Each structure stands twice: as C-alpha cells, then as structure tokens.
Amino acid sequence: MRALVTTGGGDAAPADVGEPDPAPGEAVVAVHAAGLNRGDLTVAASLPAGSRLGWDVAGVVERAADDGSGPPAGARVVGLAGRDGFAERVAIPAGHLAALPDTVPDTTGAALPVAGLTALYALRHAGWLLGRTVLVTGAGGGVGRVAVQLAAAAGARVIARVGTAGRGDGLAKLGAAAVGLYGDTIAEPVDVLLDSVGGAALEQAWTSVAEDGVVVSYGNTTREPLRLPLDWGRLRPGVSLRYLHLFQETRRQPVGRDLATLVGLVTQGRLDPQVALTTPWSDPAPAWDALRDRKVNGKAVLRLAL
Amino acid sequence: MRALVTTGGGDAAPADVGEPDPAPGEAVVAVHAAGLNRGDLTVAASLPAGSRLGWDVAGVVERAADDGSGPPAGARVVGLAGRDGFAERVAIPAGHLAALPDTVPDTTGAALPVAGLTALYALRHAGWLLGRTVLVTGAGGGVGRVAVQLAAAAGARVIARVGTAGRGDGLAKLGAAAVGLYGDTIAEPVDVLLDSVGGAALEQAWTSVAEDGVVVSYGNTTREPLRLPLDWGRLRPGVSLRYLHLFQETRRQPVGRDLATLVGLVTQGRLDPQVALTTPWSDPAPAWDALRDRKVNGKAVLRLAL
C-alpha cells in the first residue's frame, strides 16, 4: 500500500510500505482523510528519511479488532493513530476510535483528534469554566480555534489573542468575546490561560492571570525558554502552571470517549474544527508549507484518493 | 506599651505605641518571644518609618476572645499575628492561636508560625509523599529546615540543596537523605520540588523533576525572573508549578489547627524549628543583620523582657 514517508529535510511524499499488522485490540481502518498538525512538521524534521507519519485519520473500519471491541467493520470512524496514519490503511487501538455520523464529512472528522483532544485536555485541567474568563493565545491556529469553541461551550468568557490581525478572522463568530493581538491590554482578571506561544506573549499574558488562576501550556511556537516576570509568584499567588503533552494524556485518558464527545459537539453545531485547507495527499507540499508559515487559519487536511 | 517599629532604611527599634484593641473573636496575648522572618526584613524595607512589624509570637493569653472561642486567659499559646506581633501585647484572632504545652519553650513556639505553616502548606499542595522523593532548595534556612523535617515525617526521601556547604549543617540529622550544593547532580527523578531560591537553582532543579511532578515555589531569594529551559514542557510533561503565598493560604486554611499540628510534632520530637539565634528585642539589630546575611542556619527569635 501507499503511505506518506519523510524524505529528509522535513518534507514527506507518498511511497510503498507494508500492510498494517494489527495487534490484539486493534482495528484496521481504510483512511479517507488525514489531518495535518504542526507536530507532524516537527517530527518530520527530526526523523530519518523513510519514516512514517500521521496521527489524525477518518475513514472506514476494514477489519474490526479481534477482541470485538470498538466499531464493527464498515463503520465510519475518526481515530488517533500512532504516527502511521498518513497511509491507505492503518491499525489503530479500538479505544482510540469513535464513530463518525454520516452528517460529518471525513475531512471534518480528520481535523479533530490531535487539535480537539489537546484543547479538551488542556481545558479539562483548568476545571470549572462556567462564568470564568479564559484567555487563549495562539487562538488563530488549529488547537486555538477549537479551544475557543470548547471554552465558550463550557460557559466561559473567552479572550482570544493572535500574532497578526488576519489570524483572528472568524474567532468572534466561534465564541470569542474579545479578539486582539499579543501585547494588547487585558483589563479583566483571567481565570484560565491556555498558551501555545511561550516567550513574551506568555510572559505578558501571565500578568493578567487572577489569584488561584490556572495556566496550561501546550506549545511553545516561539521556541524560547520560559520566562516570567520578577515577581511572578508574589503578584500571582496560587496560580498553577502546567504543561500539557497530548501523548502523555492519551495514555491515561479515555481517548475514544473523548473523540466521541468532540464528534457529538460537531453534530450539535457547537464545534467546527475549521478545516481551512484541503489538498490531495499525493501532493502534500502546499499544505505542509502553508502550515509551517502559519497561513492556515485552522486545520489543513489531506484527502486520500478513493 | 512598647513595640518594634520601622526606623526607615529597613531597620527597626522599640518605641511607644497604643494598647491593642481586640476586634470580636480576637484574644489579647502577652508576648514572651517573637520569631523573625525574612519577610519581616522585606516589608520593613518597603514600609514607612514608624510602621509595626511581626507575625510570629508565643506568650500567654491575657484576655480571651469575647465570643469564648480559642484558648482561655492564662493559657500559653503560639500565634500568627497580623504584622503587629513585635510588641508587649497583641490582639490575634482566636483561630490563629494554638496551645503551647509546658514542655515547649516560648522561643521554640515563636519560631513555628510563618516557617512552619509555609512548609506545611507547600507540602500539602504536593499531596501524597510516602515513598516519594522531595527536593528542597534553600534547605538551610528557616522554612527549608522545617520542610526537610515535615517531608521526612510524611515518609518522603528528602534531597536537600543549599548555597554553601556550611548552610547544610545538621540537615542529615533532620532527615535529609542527601545534602548538596546547587549545581550538584541529582541522579534520581524528583516527585516534588520545593523551591525558595529561584534563578539558576530553580532552572537546574526543574530538570530533575519527574513526569507529573509537583513544583511549589514559596520564595525567590535570588530576585531573578523565573526562567525554565527551552524544552521545559515537553521534557517534563504533566509537571505543575505553583507559587505558594502564605498570607493567601492563611485566609482559607485552618491556621489554628495547623499550628496545633506543628506544636504536636514538636512535642513528639519529630520537628525542631531550629532556633539558631536568640536575642533581646531591645536590640534586634544583630538578629536582623545575621538573617539578612543568611548567617542563621534556622530561625532567629527575639526575647521580650519579662
């Protein structure tokens, strides 16, 4: 079968690979669409040429798990693969799959797993959100756009911050009460800060966090060491800071149920993963480059030839 | 009556002040000994001349609280005052007092409140300690020495780190399994880091913290902005960082019960607040200077003339 593999220098292209060999409890999924994440670019740059890629897939179960768990053969599903999802077929643990209703397109489903679960787990760490104020930095990207919607759906007042004005397009419609740029004044105390930017944006956002506030970081796009103001603690007593690493969380969270929650919100019209770019997987370079250059206001998805 | 008041420039001296005027629920305590904290030096440097000082007191209840709560008149007590405890008499909420048995000297009791409660609340945030590894930086100071003992009493393996070799004297006897200097290699994963130093010591200690570890900061003696390594999050997924501010905690913790816990540990021989310097309050300068210069391996206590 065909799969996207790294070609060195951080890029990827289709190549011939072996068929998946499902372990006990794994289903084989025929992939119809695969979501691209910034994490794919990061690992592609560090892996040797010929390495497999891909976590986000939507498709149809070709062979159910041998233990009878999970969706049956023929079911449309969304799933979180183990870095081998950019392929015609992939074996995925049944517990990392959720059914995809006919009303939800493959491309929408494929945009959900990494971005949706990251936003969901980050907000879950923050706990109670109804009536609280949530500040989301990096709000223009794939995770940020989902986080804005999930926080709003949980009853929070959402303040969105982006790097350039165009990155904020559509965020108000997704539920952000205020949209601005890094450095813009935040006049109200923030109960929860979701940060994926790091650097000066995080340092500045920190000064807006209220006593006992919760800061969850899930990225560091500036690639700078963490730095907080001199009086970081005394000025913000009780604030906790935590880094969320998705693939640590997925080891202990009910991934399948959480994917089903995200799919359910999509069917209710309360969540749109914002697929902003769709491209055939035979030529992934345009999506790859656009994502790297932060030109995708949402998610980029690869369509597999059917 | 007489009380220590600031004289400008960060120092303090006895002066005449008015008698305490207890609010409902407050007892009047005749102070026999008063513990000195680095926080006293910090606020003395920022307050106008003539300001009152002092949180840690031990003495005798002269007048019980009007609502009948707390210890009766004549009882020996330890208490957390509201920055007016360096005085012959002070009004303290009954809920901020605990009985002091005859076996515990005034000077020992007076050393407990701020240092003991800070260490107790910092460790309480860390949660379960039995069988875990706790790293304490600034272990040579007043809070650090109590934290080492409380963590050991809770079943933890304690690694103590100090700035100079002499600061570590006695820490092994207090329960530290390993005593070293900042920068010394820490070969084992650390479940809980208690930091009061900040700067490079915190940045280095961070790299020893295990996945899902808990970092509680309760001071920043280096007076540097917080800085963590570039991959602070990805290398240490799930780690939480929290700043503990004692006077935020005392608003929501059962201070009197917690003081009684600390006193109980003292009477059981499991906690020694390490009174390293005792001086008459009529001449506080030697204690003041020694604490400022980090020459007190433990607590400095002022004795009031009786």
UniProtKB/TrEMBL annotation, chains A, B:
Task: Identify the stretch(es) annotated as Disordered.
Answer: 1-24
Ranges for the Enoyl reductase (ER) domain?
10-302
Q: Give UniProt keywords alphabetically.
A: NADP, Oxidoreductase
Q: Does the keyword NADP apply?
A: yes
Q: Which domain of life is it from?
A: Bacteria
* Tagged with keyword Ubl conjugation: no
Q: Name one Pfam family in it.
A: ADH_N
Entry's PANTHER family?
QUINONE OXIDOREDUCTASE PIG3-RELATED (PTHR48106)
**What name does the UniProt record give this protein?**
Zinc-binding dehydrogenase
What taxonomic ancestry is recorded? Bacteria, Bacillati, Actinomycetota, Actinomycetes, Micromonosporales
